[in-house]
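Running this now, will post back.
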Amino acid sequence: MKYLHTMLRVSDLDASIAFFELLGFKEIARYDEPEARFTIVMMAPPGGEDTPVELTWNYDPEELGEARYFGHLAYEVDNIYETCAHLQANGVTINRPPHDGRMAFIRTPDNQSIEFLQKGTPLEKSEPWTSMGNTGHW
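Update: finished.
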């Protein structure tokens, strides 16, 4: 397993970028998703490009109480299906199953989100995960 990034929700993308730039971070990637109404900006300090901070800005205003600012930890895994099956067999709830062979979300006992991303290309879709669909809880 490899640590990838931490996601933070932001209410003012420009102000957040300026803040991280003040800390010496640089924008290393940007994903604009107008259909889904959000933008993601990856910021990293020099030498830390492989473990950036993900700033997620949703176009529609939302109340970001302290519990909503922190998004999730993200880890790359060698086999997303095996990882999720192991965790599920040990009582962990899979909030967003890996139905696409690429991404899954779980929650810690304290309700923090952890995202798993398949290393390399997504795996072929596989049961029982494909029939679970997206639960929408992530």
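The CA atoms of residues 56 and 104 lie 18 Å apart. More later if anyone needs it.
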